Amino acid sequence: MSFSAVYDIAGQSMAAQTVRMNTVASNLANARSAASSEANIYRERDVVFRADPVGRGRQSAFGVTVSDVLRNERPAEQRYQPGHPLADNNGIVYYANVNTVEQMVAMMAASRQFEATVSVLGTTRRMQDQLVELVSLR
Question: What local confidence, expressed as pLDDT, does residue 77 receive?
């Protein structure tokens, strides 16, 4: 695999994890949002990845890109709060379907994957530097 393919794969990975972290941040920011109906409530978003080829011919490899960001259709939380300004005629207030524990786990996983990719980039650069040194010694 060429160095440029490693950089392409790493770049795709970092871009995909950035989208994932931004999506999780949006989910967490809206985790406690309320609405007067289930149709108007914030729905958790989930990032869908896909493998994309990088390079050509025998040396082709696969990177990762974001295929889509989907709304999670899990039901909204309903609470009986008749005095709440957003309560419907039955006294029900609807809250976002965001699971904050799952979102924190997703944020940590995305952060670690981003850090691992940065480490791969550092190792690749050191390998290139050593190769240049070897070639210059000839």
Answer: 93
* Cα 15 → chain centroid: 9
pLDDT given for residue 5 in this prediction: 82
Task: Compute, in degrees rounded to 10, the torsion defined by CA atoms 50, 56, 61, 67.
Answer: -10
User: Does residue 58 surpass a pLDDT of 60?
Assistant: no
What torsion, rounded to 10 degrees, do the Cα atoms 65, 67, 69, 71 define?
-140
Give the model's pLDDT for residue 55. Answer: 67
Closest CA relative to residue 24, chosen from 97, 106, 95, 101? 106
In three-state secondary structure terms, 138 is coil
The interaxial angle of helices 100-137 and 3-29, nearest 10 deg, is: 160
Is the torsion defined by CA of 98, 102, 108, 109 positive or negative?
Answer: negative
Q: Where are the domains of the chain?
A: 3-33+43-72+102-137
The residues facing 62 across adjacent strands are: 53
pLDDT in tens, 1-45: 778 888 888 989 999 999 999 999 999 999 999 999 989 999 999
Q: How far apart are CA 2 and CA 97, in angstroms?
A: 44
Q: Which residues pair with 50 in a beta bridge?
A: 65
